[in-house]
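Hi there,

I know you've been waiting on this one. I reran it after we fixed the sequence typo, so this is the corrected version. Both the input and the resulting structure follow.
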Amino acid sequence: MCKVRFSTTLDSELVSKAKKQASIEGLNGANAVIEKALKLYFANRDVVVWEKNLDNGLLQKLIVRPSKMVFESIQKRVIKNDYDQAVVSDAIMQNKGFQKVWQMSK
């Protein structure tokens, strides 16, 4: 892909976060982080998610992408904001039988 010079004005806090993340990931500056964010945006901008709560407590979820459609039937959804991050480490989750299916690339 050909690189082109592009200038814009961005929120200074976002640029600072992008620079910090670039240094953590060993990238060549904020532009690399912004480029990754734009790729993620364009990869997911056509995705539509539909949810329906049923009377029996089930949640039906439909994820529509241009290339495929995923239907999920979920028995229970619990959202926890206060939790110990060590409890969801890769090793612990794999030992419990979970399989990591997606994580934002770094």
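Quick highlight: Helices lie at 12-25, 30-44, 90-95.

Best,
R. S.
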